[in-house]
Amino acid sequence: xAMTTMLPQAQGPETVGPARAGRRRGGTWGVIARSLLSxxxxxxxxxxxxxxxxxxxxxxxxxxxxxxxxxxxPGQGPSGAHLLGTTxxxxxxxxxxxxxxxxxxxxxxxxxxxxxxxxxxxxVTAAYVGGLVDDVLSLVTDIFLVIPAFPLIVVxxxxxxxxxxxxLIAVLVVVGWSYGARQLRVQALSLRNRxxxxxxxxxxxxxxxxxxxxxxxxxxxxxxAIFLGATLYAIVTAAGLQFxxxxxxETLSWGTMLYWAQNNEALQAGSPLWAIMPGxxxxxxxxxxxxLNYAFDEISNPALRPVRRRRKP
Length: 313
Prior knowledge:
Layout (H helix, E strand, L loop, with lengths): L1 H9 L5 H22 L2 H18 L1 H4 L30 H37 L1 H16 L2 H11 L5 H12 L1 H14 L3 H8 L4 H9 L4 H24 L10 H10 L9 H28 L13
Helix pairs in contact: 3-5, 3-14, 5-6, 5-8, 5-9, 5-12, 6-9, 7-8, 8-12, 10-11, 12-13, 12-14, 13-14
């Protein structure tokens, strides 16, 4: 009797409890947060992204001039009053660069988030349901994968020229979801017959509960990486569309700044910063998302992690 009473006590809270408690405290997001903080690429990407988020949230704290006010001498060079000079219309360039951050970041993040949601819905549904649903959704995904993306974007944007940001975001979502859906479908197919999913089905769990509680948490890092990739694609594509005049030129963003700089021949007119600074901001924001994307690839795939040499004692 002594042995039978002591064994359960030895295998009780002291051994199993702390492990479960640690998993509850950490969870998937805790592991991702610790991995990001220990990755140099992720740290650099987070610093860049947080800097642009601060500019987008509080532009008035950094730039005190009205970006749309045509009240200064046109075509002025950098000075103490105007750090980047003025445009050909007498607008402060530094204020325009700072205030354009909000519009550019909003378009990119909105398009990336909606494209990721569509990728998750199509990819996971096709893999888990299977059968005819999988065939139809896979066919639609393959069609969008083989269609040349940029010509399709140009055609759609040309028909909806000057329609505003919602149409531009919708165009970016339509052409940006298929690659992520293909990745998620492959990942979900590898999980469909795992023991924990079979056990959930045998317990009588509903399909939506299995997808949200069992499948999606195991693919968190992949979903975040797809979001970062879609956002990076949206940044560059949206700026390109606005630069060629397929966006709304009345809005204030880095792409429209490039559009007006090109129309006024800023480089030849002695105002190179009008074209250079928005281009540098687009490149910097894209680099921030790219660094985070590379970091998530390393976190989710140990084979991509750099080999660190141990120091000799």
